[in-house]
Amino acid sequence: MSNFGTRYKLSNTLIKKLTVDNLNGKPTRDYWDTESRTLILRLSKRYKTFYCKIDKGMSYLGRFTLDSAPDSLTLEQAREKANINAISSKGAKHNGFVNLSLEGYLDNFYVKDRKLLGRVVGDDTINLIKREFKALLSKRLKDICNDDMIIWRGSKSAVKDATKRRSYVVFRSLFNTLVEKKYIKENPIDKMTFNIGNTEKIAYHNLDYDAASSYIDSLNTSDEGKFVVLSIMLTGARPIEIIRSNCTQYTKVTDNEYKVEYISAFSKNSTSRTVHVNNSIYSKYLERLLLSYSLHSKGYSSRLMNSIKDKSGNPIHREFTTSVYRPTWDLLKAKFDLNGRLYDLRHTFASRVFKNTSNIAGVAYLLGDSISTATKYYVSMDSEETRKLTSNLK
């Protein structure tokens, strides 16, 4: 064991070799860890005990052992706990975040950091990261690099490339959070491209909107989930545009008609757009959410769907993630035999607008996309429609 003044370069092997002879006749002896800076190993005649030293206080962490006995810790586990205690005590001023393992950060700080940045991350996202990047959970944040992503992407998996892209985006977002919180200077994970060009785009041409709306209304699922599915179906909006929409974006025109302003922040062509919705069931759930906002959310945020807790920590609005609207979509999908994704309701909206108007520029405007993107991904024609295009030519 190398002595660095009053600090020591600890290791599991060397701690295991410590005996009462190292006490030099004293009842206890403290070994300060050079790596964690707040970790102390206290050697006594009976035990080897880990403590965390913060300012003038000492907190018990556990006893050293390489076994899985209760209240026992390896050196790595002790360093992690000491780091978490120090960060919890000193907050963002402490520079120990990058020394945390990926799992330690996920379990103790990621959700809090995202909330402080005004973004919500739910259990499904945390579980996705833990499932997809299981091999990296014990690795320290500062040691995770682009090589790990190359190994992960090259690993054999039955997961589709489109699903892997989502996992990658979620994982990279974690490191973007570390950058925004100024724990690290730059994201160590490079941008990657995924071959998802062959993902099938489906339009539900036979879906009866009135029947679908009535069925959604009859479901015993959340108002938020119903509103998101109805919004995608009736306005062609992206899920994120609905989730992050503000109350001010919705204006009542008549009893059943609303004007919706989708802002440029989430548009691919950087322009805002207006969509009119004339559907009584859509209006019903929008008005419920607006009422809930007026009762609970006013003064906190202008967002229509919020994650807000009262002074006791009880949620006023649930954390809004895909788990909120997935039950509504799964039931609708099964009822009407929709063999595709929720996002395909957006494709359906675009196809129907184009079929009724033949106005590709209008479709692009309503989607917040470029004309080329709208043409490539959202507009489809059957053989009868293409025949009609040339039927009057002479």
Mean pLDDT: 81
Q: What is the CATH class of the largest domain? A: Mainly Alpha
Structural class, by secondary structure, is alpha+beta
Strand order of the largest sheet: 1-2-3-4-5-6-7
Low-confidence stretches: 1-5, 313-319
How many helix segments?
A: 16
What is the fourth-level CATH superfamily of the largest domain?
A: Intergrase catalytic core
The percentage of residues in β strands lies in: 5-15%
Q: What sequence of helices (H) and strands (E) makes up the elements?
A: EEHEEEEEHHHHHHHHHEEEHHHHHH
**In the residues, how many domains can be counted?**
3
Q: Helical percent range?
A: 40-55%
Number of strands: 10
Tell me what you see in this structure:
The structure is a single chain. This protein has 394 residues and is of the alpha+beta class. The protein folds into 3 domains: 3-93, no CATH class; 97-180; 209-388, hpI Integrase, Chain A. The protein contains 16 helices and 10 strands. It has helices at residues 12-17, 75-90, 102-108, 110-116, 123-132, 146-154, 161-180, 209-218, 223-235, 239-243, 280-297, 322-335, 344-357, 360-367, 371-378, 383-390; strands spanning 3-4, 7-8, 28-33, 39-44, 48-54, 57-64, 72-73, 250-252, 257-262, 273-278. The strands form 2 sheets. The chain has a 7-stranded mixed sheet. Helix 8 packs antiparallel against helix 9 and helix 9 runs parallel beside helix 13 (344-357). The radius of gyration is 28 Å and the shape is elongated. The protein starts with a strand and ends with a helix.
